[in-house]
């Protein structure tokens, strides 16, 4: 008789890591995304493809579980927790680069989802805004061991154009997610857009407002302006579920490819939106809004 394998319920930290990885896989699979890797192909990237995005996402499970577990042990926002998360984040980046043979697939996602996984553990049962606020408090603490890299793409364009990047997005409580991605996801669902279209609309809402340092790095201010205006045009035409919106979305995709631009920061924040959506109870829709 075959031996019975005892089934153990996953811990809270393991469940959070499951959700974080699933959010990354769902983001990668979502199609058609302008300029980004999706089920159709590699978008504006020559060194990325869908299989690599999936492998990268799976490689991050131990890092997310360890970050959530560190938050469980510490139990509150503290300098010690911030420093532990910094080390775990750097270890996660190293593992990602090992699995992708040196290609940066998810640096921004490790930062955003790592902080949110830890915060979700600290704020169990809280709203998305409550979790994001706790992640922001962690992000605002300085990590003295963090290597300051003034040459990262983000650091360079933030200096050059005087904009805020991934660090500030977290320190301010992920406004792109809380004020744009999540409300649009819920509004498009309520309007009957269908799940994939609602997720595309959430991505577009993020793109319409974000200073995405990936786009700035590859395509400058003109690229950023065209990304934001193009995303807004899709939503104003009726979103991804409408024929007119789809037409605008095709134009935006062509434009991003012509500019060699890819909104990798917005993609990470869509993953953060999907993570919080699965996790946090949403406030009921205002009366008369459905
Ligand atoms: C604080 C850090 C986030 C470092 O930030 P910094 O800006 O210095 O560094 P970057 O290396 O540029 O990484 C930032 C990544 O964040 C994403 N992003 C961009 N804009 C925003 C935004 N406005 N808000 C939020 N997030 C944003 C983006 O990630 C995605 O793009 C990646 C690909 O980027 P890149 O390599 O530039 O791409 P290519 O164009 O393809 O390169 P080439 O082909 O042209 O060469 C991809 O990974 C996506 O994820 C930015 O890249 C933080 O990382 C940090 O300090 N970490 C240390 C560890 C730590 O403390 N962790 C804490 C606990 S988790
Ligand atoms: N789908 C995607 N394509 C390119 N870069 C990304 N960074 C995060 N998700 C991405």
From TrEMBL:
Entry GO MF terms: ATP binding; glycosyltransferase activity; triphosphoribosyl-dephospho-CoA synthase activity
GO biological process: prosthetic group biosynthetic process
Assigned keywords, A-Z: ATP-binding, Glycosyltransferase, Nucleotide-binding, Transferase
Tree of life domain: Bacteria
EC main group: transferase
EC numbers for this chain: 2.4.2.52
Family classification: Belongs to the CitG/MdcB family.
Known role: Involved in the formation of 2-(5''-phosphoribosyl)-3'-dephosphocoenzyme-A, the prosthetic group of the acyl-carrier protein of the malonate decarboxylase.
HAMAP family (UniProt xref): MdcB
Protein name as it appears in the record: Probable 2-(5''-triphosphoribosyl)-3'-dephosphocoenzyme-A synthase
Name of the gene encoding the protein in the UniProt record: mdcB
